[in-house]
Structures are given as C-alpha cells and as structure tokens.
Design brief:
Blueprint: H1 2-27, E1 30-37, E2 40-42, E3 45-47, E4 52-57, E5 60-66, E6 69-76, E7 79-87, E8 94-102, E9 109-113, H2 114-118, H3 123-126, E10 127-129, H4 151-159
Parallel strand pairs: 1-9
Antiparallel strand pairs: 1-6, 2-3, 4-5, 4-7, 7-8, 9-10
Amino acid sequence: MKNKRRFLFRAGAVALLVLIAALMFVIGRGHTVYFDNKTLEYQGQAYEAPYRISVYVNDEQVAKLGKRERGMSPWMGQNFRMLLEVTKEKGGETTAHSVRMPLPYNMDGIILNLPAMLAGLPPEAYLSEFVQTAEPEAPEDESVVTDEFSDEAFMEAMEG
C-alpha cells in the first residue's frame, strides 16, 4: 500500500513537470518578427509596396516603414497580434488593419512581407525564415615596420 502511494505521488510529480514544460514551450517561445515593406512578385503578379506602413505591437509603434524598408519586433508566444496603419500614396488616406496570426514553432526569425499579407496571399507567399549569413572577414592589412635608423643614427638625429 505504501509503495503504491509513493509510486502515484512520483508519477503525478513527473506528469506535472511534463505539463509545465509543454506549457512553457508554447507560452515562453520567443521570436523576432521582421516586417518588410517591399514589392513582392508572386505567381507572375507584382504586389506593390505602399508609401508608408506604421506597425504597432502591444499598442506601441515598433516600425514606420517607407518603401523597401524593414522593421522588427520581439514577440513571446505563438499568437502574434499587430495593427498596421497603411498609407497607399503620399498625402493619401490612412487605413488600419488588425492582424492576428499563429507563428511557426520551428522559426526564430520570421519575415513578414506586409504588401503580400495585406493582399490576402497565403502564408507561404508572405512568411519566410530570416537566415543570417556570415560576411567573409576582410583580410587585415599588415603593417610592416622598418627601422630606417640604426640606434646610433637615431640618437644623432635626435640630438641634431
């Protein structure tokens, strides 16, 4: 009886730890979300970048993007929410778009092409992974130190 009770407590503790780990994986997963305001060509059709897009995450402006610009914001969790204020052309009217979307578990850096997203394209068109490429190191210039003066000539030059 005592062994059965001990086993149940241990099994319950292990199950609780597994549940907490799974919950933390979903809730605590951090992402960096990049926003591109760039023209995108998809299936032979071009989706033009608007003049300006202001991006708000958690009621805070994180990016004000002109054409061909990129912004970013950190995000915790899997359900991403943002507000986009879009101005199609200079001096034009601004429209607001609320966006909610699940973020992929397997990506840390996520690039969202905003013109494609606003056009209603599928996720494979506007969502991609940010992969940082290492830049090759430039060879350092070696400076060659030459001794133009011998010690004696140096001393004479300093005295005279």
